[in-house]
Amino acid sequence: SKKKQQKRTEITKDALLQHLEQNMGNVTLACHFGKCSRSTFYRYYKNDKEFAKQVDDIIEIALDICESEL
Asked: Is-above-0.85 flag for pTM?
């Protein structure tokens, strides 16, 4: 059903965000551990403004951490 699919999509997005954070903003690793293709990740990114904002925030924090360690 459509409602079940939407719930599964939300769970997938949550997992991707968690894995993205754990892997310092690395989309390839986040997709690997989240069991999701990169094309699906970028489709979510393109079509879901809230998901995109969360992704951008995680990547920005990861970059700040990396830069502070230089």
From this structure: yes
